[in-house]
Design a protein that fits this description.
CATH topology of the largest domain: BirA Bifunctional Protein, domain 2
Helix content: 25-40%
Number of strands: 22
CATH architecture of the largest domain: 2-Layer Sandwich
Structural class: alpha+beta
Largest sheet: 8 strands, mixed
CATH class of the largest domain: Alpha Beta
């Protein structure tokens, strides 16, 4: 079929616009053939664009000259039609469709483009492998689900920009080509043609530049910005992701919290018509680890971890006593109504915990008479009552126990509590559970490297009361393990949405932090000299946060992977199946930038 150009045809309406008030009007619509139906010699087509669907009709009794063209149309052909709007016949209206009360009788038609046989369906969700969807992303993005997600993303971007602009924040762009300043993940490097042998780096975040902006008197900065990290990927990670980035001068933590809480309230109201009520729950890192086993707890489920080490201590249960003697802890979870679980379901839960690394999952059922299990006999009546008291247990509950080093059992308990919620089909206490987690340790010991490493952010201000453990290495108080930062994470439904901190703003204190992690003054100048120099010219106290926009939108859209809210995402191996990136380049291009590839190219496995 010949492709006919648009010529002087002009679209008068989109495909989601016409209503009964347009009956009698002559219109011109353009879009894609979504569905084709032949009803007794009359052809009905659902014409689609991103605004919706309009039913158009080819009737040979009215316009016989164009009926053959209508009969030749197939799904995803791009067409233009002119015709008259009319009411649908009695009994044929579709009240579920905004345009469902009308149809357009086609008087003229032009085929603007044809479509090959489709590798994936566009007008419905398929069950094809995700690799196929990503290979044909230009078709996948036509689907209603993906269009809703990306339209929602665009709307939320506008909400964010309007919100911060209304708070006197300035949207200031920061460089994409910058200096390599390792901040935790590996940098993506870009060779320079004009300075052979030198490289730019794609920014892992705008962190250093936004701190410099504070030193430049721009006291309220924000940006919806790309960040790049060369790290192993998973469902909630991409080599390039988008973050809502902001920084303020002269703030305290509450300023940041209230600003972000109001933003979340606005986004959820305008995006989902859901009322989010600040203030969000706050807890310290230590509280989160003790009660939930992780620093990003899912608070939709009322399952807390309880430490019963002191109740166990001195019992006849040698397995637990051995753990306690070696400095370990005994912690567990009360499962409301869990006593109804069958022995097989309990055994399955034990197996699940063992796959996570536990030595086992001990358990006790609570009934009217007391505790019941094969280990109850090792605990006297006083200790049994101690378990009931510490767990706040009621008849019908199940008590579970994990033993080991606190650092080892925390992630196990964190996973087990969510698995319990899933297996018990627990109803969430709320659909969206926000929390602030604060006061993270500034450093953590790396047993492999035998040195201190930053736990979160090397530019974060220590708490005032912990300065004595950091400032003087010759002091008896000096102990990096006791230094906690003015750090905070925003968590939603067990997902870390963003991290931030009040920053260090003077070079002396910043070097103290560098010293702990093994960055001497020479190295600090080489990596961060431009920031440290800015600090010496009157930098104000400042702080901020960066929120992962992709993660937030995925949760709001009910998606389990951020790939579903990103137009052109990469796979888990960092490849783009649609374009074939990353790819080799010819030797001439490599010579221009002074790069020689010594490692043989290996064929990448395209896995999602």
């Amino acid at each position: 079929m010949q492709v006919v150009p648009q010529g002087d045809w002009k679209r008068t309406h989109n495909c989601g616009e016409l209503r009964e008030g347009n009956v009698g009007a002559k219109v011109c619509l353009m879009g894609w053939v979504n569905r084709y139906r032949d009803h007794g010699g009359v052809i009905f087509i659902d014409l689609r664009d991103r605004y919706g669907l309009t039913q158009i009709v080819f009737d040979p009794s009215d316009y016989p000259d164009i009926f053959d063209i209508g009969d030749s149309l197939r799904n995803e052909y791009v067409i233009a039609i002119k015709g008259n709007v009319r009411n649908r016949p009695e009994g044929m209206a579709n009240p579920k469709l905004p345009t469902g009360m009308i149809e357009v009788l086609v008087g003229e038609v032009k085929v603007l483009n044809v479509c090959k046989s489709l590798p994936i369906a566009v007008n419905e969700e398929g069950d094809e492998d995700e690799r196929v969807r990503l290979r044909y992303r230009f078709l996948d993005l036509r689907r209603e689900r993906m269009q809703k997600n990306l339209i929602f993303r665009s709307k939320m971007n506008k909400v964010v920009r309007d919100y911060f602009s209304g708070k006197d924040f300035l949207e200031i762009e920061t460089p994409v080509l910058t200096k390599s300043t390792p901040e935790g993940a590996r940098d993506f490097l870009v060779p320079s043609r004009l300075s052979k042998g030198s490289f730019y780096a794609l920014p892992q975040s705008p962190q250093l530049f936004k701190q410099i902006l504070m030193a430049c008197c721009y006291d309220k900065y924000f940006q919806v910005v790309k960040a790049y990290r060369d790290e192993d990927l998973r469902a909630d990670r991409q080599p390039e992701h988008t973050q809502i980035d902001l920084e303020m001068s002269f703030p305290d933590e509450e300023d940041i919290f209230s600003l972000i809480e109001e933003l979340m309230k606005k986004m959820f109201k305008e995006g989902l018509d859901i009322d989010i009520e600040p203030p969000f729950r706050r807890m310290t890192y230590e509280e989160a680890m003790l009660k939930y086993g992780c620093d990003k707890p899912d608070l939709r489920y009322d399952l807390e971890v309880t430490d019963v080490t002191e109740v166990v201590r001195g019992s006849d249960f040698k397995v637990f006593e051995k753990v306690i003697a070696s400095g370990g802890r005994i912690r567990g979870i009360r499962v409301p109504g869990g006593a109804a679980m069958t022995r097989k379901k309990i055994d399955d839960l034990i197996t699940y915990s063992q796959k996570l690394g536990s030595t086992g999952l001990a358990w006790m059922k609570v009934n009217e008479e007391g505790l019941q299990s094969n280990i109850v006999k090792f605990f006297n009546k006083e200790k049994q009552q101690g378990f009931i008291r510490e767990f706040g247990a009621q008849p019908g509950d199940l008590l579970t126990f994990v033993a080991g080093r606190a650092a080892d059992i925390c992630p196990i308990l964190a996973a087990v509590r969510l698995e319990i919620a899933r297996r018990m089909e627990m109803k969430p206490l709320e659909e969206f559970a926000f929390a602030w987690v604060t006061d993270f340790p500034l450093f953590e010991w790396d047993p492999t490297e035998k040195r201190w490493a930053p736990m979160h952010h090397i530019f974060s201000m220590p708490r005032d009361r912990d300065m004595k453990h950091l400032v003087d290495p010759d002091s008896d108080d000096y102990d990096p393990a006791k230094v906690y930062g003015r750090l905070y994470d925003l968590v939603l439904n067990g997902v870390e949405l963003g991290s931030g901190s009040i920053r260090i703003h003077n070079t002396g204190l910043q070097q103290k932090v560098f010293d702990v992690i093994g960055i001497d003054e020479e190295t600090a100048q080489e990596r961060f000299g431009f920031l440290l120099e800015a600090f010496q010219y009157g930098a104000p106290p400042h702080g901020g946060i960066a929120l992962g926009l992709d993660r937030l939108l995925a949760i709001m859209c009910g998606e389990s992977s951020i790939r579903e809210v990103i137009p052109f995402p990469k796979t888990s191996t960092g490849t783009c199946l649609m374009t074939g990136a990353p790819s080799t380049v010819d030797k001439a291009a490599l010579r221009e930038v002074g790069v020689k590839v010594n490692i043989p190219q290996e064929k990448q496995v395209d896995e999602t």
